[in-house]
Amino acid sequence: MNKGDNAWQLMAATVVGLQSIPGLVILYGSLVKKTWAINSAFMAFYAFAAVLLCWVAWGFRMSFGEKMVFFLGKPGVALDDKFLLGKAFLGLFPTATMVFFQGVFAGITLILIAGALLGRMNSRAWMLFVPLWLTFSYTVTAFSIWCPDGWLAKLGVIDFSGGYVIHLSAGVAGFTAAYWVGPRSEKDRETFPSNNMIVVLAGAGLLWMGWSGFNGGGPFAVSTVASLAVLNTHVCAAASIIVWVLLDTFYFGKPTVFGAVQGMITGLVCITPAAGVVQGWAAILMGLISGSVPWYTMMVLHKKLPFLNQIDDPMAVFHTHAVAGALGGILTGLFAVPKLCRLFYMVPDWEKYIGLAYGLQNGATRAGLRQMAIQVGAMVFVIIFNFVTTSLICLLVGVIVPLRLDTDALQMGDMAMHGEEAFALYGEPAKFQNLKHNKIYDTRDFSYVSESRSLGELQMV
């Protein structure tokens, strides 16, 4: 056991947790119109809690435990001290640390899916969807790619910190679920203004800085690879933001905060599968690509293709996570440095983990092509598997409860779903009376009354 590694891993896990709570809670709650602020924040808040409970009950061992089949581990609890205090399957720290670290990754994945479903999904349906998707979709992808016994891991797929497991999965699952749930009301699809763009930046800032733990925790050690991963993460994000903002400026005539946030997300997502195994120049190049290709698919292609346009994805999860995650995985297969891969995976096998660019340079073209084929194959597997499992889960949940809210609830938003309003100063003034007794004079104190009153009504008697 290593105290330094354990401390860093716990800190990284906590920072990733802060990306969700309060990062994405704030981002979702402020980026939607005011009538949907509470429900949007609630979906993220609930998902994080539900995932952690399911994770220790059965999810962790299904994802990283003893192999049951080639793509899944045996279900089992991760709660007894003998198991939790033993050495983790990777790293020099207790299993309890690994359970928490991987748990917050699972939690943020479900929250990302929620971004495609805001503004119309039935809360009861979401409550059922979260544990089902974690159990039957996330665990399979995580075991296949990240667990040492997983079939894609044995082939040599490179996914440094979740480009495929988290972002591609969430993007495809969110877009698929959005199809089955259906769109928001016509009114909301036409106009869905943010209720506070400044607060959006606060949530985005938590998400951006939290990525230091997201990618920096990938090596499971306080190491040079962790340092490189953190630096590459922020450099790629910065490059992506600049490209997105410039494209918005040239194409639409002005930059937008929304565009800057989307550029930030695509850059962070794209570098995630490659963060610690590529050079700094490659990170910048990946930022340039992640700031332009998803921009084109979102701003231009989305409007031209009827299929994409008819599926309602409020947070553009398909473009920012599915497209950017797929780009990141493929570019990883191109730019992965063999030496850095040796440091990260700690294996002497030089037939694996060779980026195509370095394979061509060093006379190992066959190995580079093999790596690229593995990256593409893993991408196809994640896309198809998540499309199928998410569709089946939505169909199952739809049999139990309606996936989409009825027309009246869609018009009311938070008040219909939670009986609460996010902004007391918006809309009609609150109507309540503070009927506290004045103990000195034994009279009622009307400290706030919303209705206007005449002078006679307010006259002292």
Q: What's the short story on this structure?
A:
This protein is 67% helix and 3% strand.
Sheet having the most strands = 2 strands, antiparallel
Please state how the strands of the largest beta sheet are arranged side by side. 1-2
Instruction: Kindly estimate the percentage of residues that lie in beta strands according to DSSP.
Output: under 5%
Based on CA inertia axes, which overall geometry fits?
globular
Q: What's the end-to-end separation, in Å?
A: 77 Å
Unreliably modeled segments: 429-461
SSE class: mainly alpha
What report would you give on this structure?
- By secondary structure, the chain is mainly α.
- Helix content is 67%, strand content 3%.
List keywords for this structure.
461 residues, mainly alpha, two-stranded antiparallel ribbon, two-stranded antiparallel sheet, 3% strand, disordered C terminus
Q: Layout of helices and strands, plus pairs?
A:
Layout (H helix, E strand, L loop, with lengths): L2 H29 L5 H28 L2 E3 L2 E2 L7 H4 L10 H20 L8 H24 L4 H5 L7 H19 L4 H5 L6 H20 L7 H29 L4 H15 L8 H25 L1 H5 L6 H19 L2 H8 L10 H6 L3 H36 L6 H6 L1 H4 L17 E4 L4 E4 L8 H4 L3
Antiparallel strand pairs: 1-2, 3-4
